[in-house]
Description:
By secondary structure, the protein is an alpha+beta fold. Helix content is 30%, strand content 19%. Mean pLDDT is 84; it is low at 85-99.
Amino acid sequence: MGFGDLKSHAGLQVLNEFLADKSYIEGYVPSQADIAVFEALSGAPPADLYHALRWYNHVKSYEKQASSLPGVKKQLGKYGPVNIEDTTDTSAKETTEDDDDIDLFGSDDEEENEEAKRIREERLAQYESKKSKKPTLIAKSNLLLDVKPWDDETDMAKLEECVRTIEIDGLVWGSSKLVPVGYGIKKFQITCVVEDDKVGTDLLEERITAFEDFVQSMDVAAFNKI
């Protein structure tokens, strides 16, 4: 079980495949599992690995709340697909092969000689070939955004008008409402559907908070893959 070396392109490809039908590493809400895998990356995945990049951008939006997310961090090798050996976990004792008997990453104790390199390259080529034959799906997510005004004197109708003027390829605005938060202040809630490889939560936050005369902050209240 594991993703392999998440600082390598091969490891990121395994992570991308794992997240093709998942929003999170475990369960249906962000947790310490997401933080553990996020911290193992050296940076954002490349744009062509859009499932991993979508997940990375979403988890990054929780950086300030990382310690309060549910769950307990486990060893990195405890997360990920069960058919991939995690070569970054030195406690791993057994190698699990996938359905096609392809060992993507080899053994930590394998002698680095020309024959071993050739075999590993052939296995990686088989993996790439198998992935390239899969149809490309447009990954979409349904978001619920909380947009908070500065005070109870903020013109909420104007705030909504500003938000809905935002046009991005891959973004469709949905229904909205005002929700009381106390002391006469109401927050603006709005739903939207986004194409994950085109629109991230960071981009939405940047565009919405740009209306600084009306908007104090923006948070993602709910995130669900479609």
